[in-house]
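User: I'm writing a short methods note and want a consistent example. For Sulfur reduction protein DsrE, I'll paste the sequence; you return only the structure tokens, no commentary, since I'll be parsing the reply automatically.
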Amino acid sequence: MPNTLFIINDAPYGNERAYNALRLAGALAGREDQQVRVFLMADAVGCAKAGQKVPEGYYNIQLMLGKVLRKGEVALCGTCMDARGLTDAEIAKGARRSTLNELAQWTAEADKVLVF
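Assistant:
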């Protein structure tokens, strides 16, 4: 089964890179013939913050991440979480703290790596 890895670096709001990455990741995760993994680094760890509340009519990154989590995997850089004061208890259900070593493993296993 083809394996696509998304590496997201940008904050969840402020520009649309994380939004567009998760739109594509969610579309691929919905296919039976794809394995999707998302690794959140730097300010992108905020994408997995639980309890996001946005103005009505505005996209919600946490909900978009949930679509990926139903069929794929989402991991966060633990060092990046620590630097931003984000704890394991504050992240969305199904997402998890990870390491650069795991990112290296996922990269080696991936058929495609997309960086946003």
